[in-house]
Amino acid sequence: MHLVFATSIVPSGTATTGYEIANAAIVDALRRAGVRVTVLGFIWPGAAPSDPEHTIVLGEVDVRTDNASGLQKASWLLKAMSTGLTFSSVKLRAATPDQVRAALASIGPHDGYVLNAAQFAGAFEGVFRDRPSIFVAHNVEYRSAEENAAAARGLMQKVLYTREAGLLRGIERRLCDRADFVWTLAEDDRPLLGIDQNDRSSALPLVTRLEPPPPPGPRETTCDAALIGTWTWQPNRIGLEWFLGEVVPHLPADFTVRIAGKTPSDLASAHPGVKFVGFVPDATEFVRSARVIPLASRAGTGVQLKTIETFELGLPSVATPRSLRGIANVPDNCVIADDPVGFARALVDVARNPGPDADGRAFHAAQRAALDREIARGLARIAAAGHEAAA
């Protein structure tokens, strides 16, 4: 079977964002199942595809809103308003639908599509209707937009997020209706998308690394707690704001917290132990330097890849229930807490009384085996759709 994996950004170099890590896991699982995969999409400016022999690049784009100039943001907004597209999809209209069709024709014979996330599929809705397809819903995008609107501080932001939510609800409904099968990244997302029938969809357990993690061993810790992420992404920001504003005030003055990753300039903490460290060269070594990992998600849908990575590394953690979406088996060294006082107390207890790290190899193996099973279910459905179309 030959499938085209149609995605916003094609793989280039080491996967670093949650989106890229999830894509790598899904493409690798498809190929383990014997599928020939050709990846189609845009690439970051100046980058080169990791697998050029099996990649079709439509052009260069930088879709990060926080990197864009005011003029670029205004251009995207004006184009979104005039075309009826979402703000996220209009960024991908650097190619026309006809150019995407020509790129597909250049691939040669293929059996169907894996439409990876609503942004790209929503930008080119009419292009992928000629063959069977699987839609990958990384998140319930309309629900995330509703949460972003509720958390927005300015009227304009609230209006824009509310518009996105309305458009995304329709786009996701159409993509799910047209797909022969839908993969979500969390079980809770299936009913939100109206596709919780077992013959229509399944949730994909993910891994963050293609090879098993190392066995637990000694590690040097330099801080009590460490968080890393793209904090300019609104759902991540909501979680970090909650952690800084609600949890941190209940931590002792000598409790040390290190926060890595790009952080909005207006996020700060008066706690003497909190330090923003920006970019770190090795994300794994950074989290391994902490006695406990706070998993403080409060918004968003889909799965938290940082949660999966923490469990694969066997690190002690304190997690909100929202951080555990998409996780069937929670390790014993993860404490679940949802209120700020309880969360802070659990962080201090774990950091002050550290137990042994868990063996993340078992978690990784279970996730990968479950991923392969659900990939096989979707492939069986798209193969059956192909046979029906040919009959």
Summarize the model shown:
The chain is 41% helix and 17% strand.
Supply the key terms:
391 residues; alpha/beta; six-stranded parallel β-sheet; globular
Characterise the protein shown here.
It is a single chain. By secondary structure, the chain is of the alpha/beta class. It is 41% helix and 17% strand. The protein has 13 helices and 13 strands. Strands 3-2-1-4-5-6-7 form a 7-stranded parallel β-sheet, sandwiched between helices. A 6-stranded parallel β-sheet has the order 10-9-8-11-12-13, sandwiched between helices. Helix 1 (18-32) packs across helix 13 (360-390) and helix 9 packs across helix 12. The chain is globular. It starts with a strand and ends with a helix.
Count of β-strands: 13
Low-pLDDT regions:
none
The geometry reads as: globular
Helical proportion? 40-55%
Largest sheet: 7 strands, parallel
Q: Rg from C-alpha positions?
A: 21 Å
Distance between the termini: 17 Å
Arithmetic mean of pLDDT: 91
Strand residue percentage:
15-25%
* Largest sheet, spatial ordering of strands: 3-2-1-4-5-6-7
Secondary structure tally, helices: 13
H and E order: EHEEHHHEHEHHEHEEHEEHEHEEHH
Overall structural class, as computed from helix and strand content, comes to alpha/beta
